[in-house]
Specification:
About 50% of the residues lie in helices and about 15% in strands. The chain contains 19 helices and 15 strands.
Length: about 550
């Protein structure tokens, strides 16, 4: 059955509601969900609880009416042969119990579709721009940037898998006060290397990399016209190499300096002025952002004639829309939380729906080594860099660990755990499941022919649980899309690996009767395919042996 069973069941519920001839509306949220507890069925609906207040009836009474309607509409449908039982349980939940024939059919589809399994065309090629990392080129990337990098990259992978036309972009703030301070920091270190006594300002960049740049300029006798530009370019090369080694690639590196030189900032402000959304006050130019749910109006040009951060951002986002993107996703650190409303207001002032812009705040990560929290200070250069994490644990573990907590939650990254080659390490546990299956399939001289496989041999509890978990893959990806958070993918992969290990630890695959061996080989082939897809979407390797 290729039709989505949740959609079909939701249709039956809605048909049953029509039968009641009551004017009711279903609020936001799915009508049917996968049951969180398998002892309460495979699928569940809380629709009766949600309608109880609106209909002014007990939820169990509503559920009883609905189940009667569902059973009536169920007759002679494709679902009839798959629904084993419908129960009203708890406060009025309608729980659906599916028979094994349904899961055999789904297993057959998973194997038949191969790498196309869970490729749902939800996006319909809608153009999406995800802007992430966008760290100033004033120092190597920190672990905070690293977490933003993998969140953005995996989210882009998932959205592409679900049918969106996604582009990745890095906004390069390559001018302004921070870049000037960078150049001054290098200049001071050059003087220090020349024997001068320097009192280094507290607000300048003090990392070892500043010495490296100064030493390179001095030793190679490089003629530098602008130390700020040279240092920013030097650091940008480091950033690009770090991200490439972290398996993060960008389609575009968008320069703020070129944005300013293009005249797009002036054009954007002129557009807003014509719309009547700018006004002069106290010698400054203000955006009427309070007209768009911001808590106060915002300055775009200060009384000294210089731009605020908001001015180029307005032009940048206007340019994103002009490039044809229908949906914008910005991934920021927690220090930008207060900036959300003003940017959403600016987008509305530009004539766009605020829902076209999603801003994801990625919380910080704390790094532990041997149980000790490593202290960090960006300006002093005393922070753990992405490069250090890559050197210590590698890109696979680093990518997985950075997304195995919800993005709005603080992350504790345990370097010792990430290096362990034991099931205690979640990424090792998942990769080991993939490698274990590869080994079994390699040891088998049988050719798996799905059309000739009798899946009814799969009757053990662990076999059925593994099939059920495979069926949940598309739903896990939908949750990632709905929440704009790749976290659920790591949860799903961990649960799938656990279901496989539990199956394999209790049941032999090879050396059984031919029909049973064939069925189990088909089951683990499907499992390998889904694990491989999940790891690929996560940007993590899929080892054939470990």
């Amino acid at each position: 059955m290729k039709e989505n069973i949740q959609d079909l069941l939701a249709g039956l519920i809605k048909a049953s509601l029509k039968d009641l001839k009551l004017s009711v509306s279903i609020d936001e949220g799915p009508v049917i969900e996968t049951s969180k507890n398998g002892s309460f069925g495979d699928l569940s609906s809380n629709i009766a609880l949600r309608l109880a207040r609106q209909m002014k009836k007990p939820s169990k009474e509503i559920a009883s009416f609905l189940v009667s309607g569902i059973l009536k509409h169920l007759a002679n449908t494709i679902l009839e042969k798959y629904i084993q039982e419908i129960k009203i349980e708890g406060a009025g939940f309608i729980n659906f119990y599916l028979n094994n024939d349904y899961f055999y059919e789904q297993l057959k589809n998973i194997i038949r579709e191969g790498k196309d399994f869970a490729k749902l065309n939800l996006g319909r090629e809608e153009k999406v721009l995800i802007e992430f990392v966008s760290a100033n080129p004033t120092g190597p990337l920190s672990v905070a940037h690293a977490r933003q990098a993998v969140v953005g990259d995996v989210l882009a992978n998932i959205m592409q898998h679900l049918g969106f036309a996604v582009k990745r972009e890095y906004y390069l703030n390559d001018e302004g006060n921070q870049i000037n301070i960078l150049g001054e920091s290098v200049e001071l270190r050059l003087k220090e290397l020349s024997g001068q006594n320097i009192e280094f300002p507290e607000d300048h960049y003090q990392g070892e990399y500043i010495y490296d740049i100064a030493k390179k300029v001095k030793s190679e006798k490089i003629k530098v016209e602008n130390l700020s530009d040279y240092a920013a370019s030097y650091i940008l090369d480091i950033i690009k190499k770090e991200l490439a080694d972290f398996k993060v690639e960008f389609d575009c590196w968008y320069s703020q300096k070129k944005l300013r030189e293009s005249g797009k900032i002036e054009n954007a402000l002129e557009f807003l002025k014509e719309k009547g959304f700018l006004y002069q006050q106290d010698g400054a130019l203000w955006l009427k952002s309070t007209q768009f749910q911001d808590d106060k109006d915002r300055v775009v040009i200060k009384n000294d004639g210089s731009y605020t951060y908001l001015a180029p951002d307005i032009a940048y986002h206007q340019d994103k829309f002009k490039r044809g993107f229908k949906r914008l996703i910005n991934i920021w650190g927690p220090d930008h939380h207060g900036y959300i409303n003003r940017l959403k207001a600016a987008v509305q002032a530009l004539g766009q729906d605020s829902h076209c812009l999603d801003i994801i705040i990625v919380q910080l990560a704390s790094i532990f080594r041997e149980g000790q929290l490593l202290q960090m200070s960006t300006r002093k250069g005393q922070y753990i860099t992405l490069r250090e994490v890559l050197n210590e644990v590698g890109p696979d573990a680093a990518r997985f660990f950075f997304i195995m907590r919800r993005t709005p939650s603080h992350l504790d990254f345990d370097l010792a755990l990430a290096k362990k080659q034991t099931p205690e390490n979640p990424v090792y546990y998942i990769q080991y499941a993939h490698a274990r299956i590869c080994s079994i399939l390699h040891s088998s001289d049988k050719i798996i022919k799905t059309n000739e496989t009798d899946f009814t041999y799969l009757r053990e509890k662990e076999e059925i649980e593994l099939i059920k978990k495979l069926c949940h893959f598309p739903e896990a990806l939908k949750i990632c899309l709905h929440t704009l958070d790749p976290y659920m993918l790591t949860v799903y992969l961990g649960e799938l690996a656990e279901a496989f290990h539990q199956f394999y630890d209790r049941h032999r695959v090879l050396g059984q009767a031919q029909g049973l061996t064939q069925a189990r080989l088909s089951l683990i082939e499907a499992t390998q395919n889904v694990i491989a897809q999940g790891l690929e979407l996560s940007g993590i390797s899929q080892p054939a042996s470990m």
